[in-house]
């Protein structure tokens, strides 16, 4: 079932990236706009961005056109589908549920940082990856641990924004 759910989740990714690329075009400053457009094109081409590339555009997601409360409704719906939240609600509720879900993941990230990934069983490790968007059914435990370590580093860096 995880593969089926992952296929549904991946079906929403193009809409999320299209919404992000569209919003990027409206950014007033050329350098951040170009960085985000390059990042979107890279991901649409199948590449995985490096942590430094993601951190380079993080400021765009707070207080700008890319803040959650300013995203287009279609973009918020697509993001909701990625997290398996129902997209069939008014925009206010969609944003509220999305914000609440992301906050829950951030709290879980803090707990994982304090606990340490070495304390997780293989099943817990895979569940943690899946909750954050990685289908770990075809990955080894070491790959899951490495991905989750990268995720936690990014989450820790983003906490300040």
From TrEMBL:
Q: Which GO terms describe its biological process?
A: intracellular monoatomic cation homeostasis
- GO CC, any one term: mitochondrial inner membrane
Which Gene Ontology terms cover its molecular function? ribosome binding
| Highest taxon of the lineage | Eukaryota
List the PROSITE patterns. Answer: LETM1_RBD
Pfam families linked to this entry: LETM1_RBD (PF07766)
What are the subcellular locations of this protein? Mitochondrion inner membrane
> What UniProt keywords apply to this chain's record, in alphabetical order?
Membrane, Mitochondrion, Mitochondrion inner membrane, Transmembrane, Transmembrane helix
Identify the residues that the record assigns to the Letm1 RBD domain, covering every copy: 4-161
How this chain sits in the membrane, per its record, is: Single-pass membrane protein
* Protein name per UniProt: LTMD1 protein
Q: Which organism is it from?
A: Helopsaltes ochotensis (Middendorff's grasshopper-warbler)
Phylogenetic lineage: Eukaryota, Metazoa, Chordata, Craniata, Vertebrata
The gene for this chain is: Letmd1
């Amino acid at each position: 079932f995880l593969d089926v759910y992952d296929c549904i989740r991946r079906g929403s990714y193009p809409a999320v990236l299209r919404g992000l690329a569209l919003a990027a075009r409206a950014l007033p400053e050329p350098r951040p706009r170009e960085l985000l457009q390059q990042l979107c094109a890279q991901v649409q081409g199948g590449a995985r961005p490096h942590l430094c590339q993601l951190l380079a555009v993080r400021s765009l997601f707070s207080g700008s056109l890319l803040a959650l409360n300013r995203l287009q409704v279609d973009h918020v719906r697509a993001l909701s589908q990625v997290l398996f939240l129902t997209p069939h609600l008014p925009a206010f509720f969609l944003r509220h549920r999305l914000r609440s879900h992301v906050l829950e993941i951030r709290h879980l990230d803090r707990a994982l940082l304090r606990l340490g990934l070495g304390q997780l069983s293989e099943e817990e490790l895979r569940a943690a990856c899946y909750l954050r968007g990685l289908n770990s059914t075809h990955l080894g435990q070491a790959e899951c641990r490495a991905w989750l370590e990268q995720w936690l580093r990014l989450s820790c860096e983003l906490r300040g924004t």
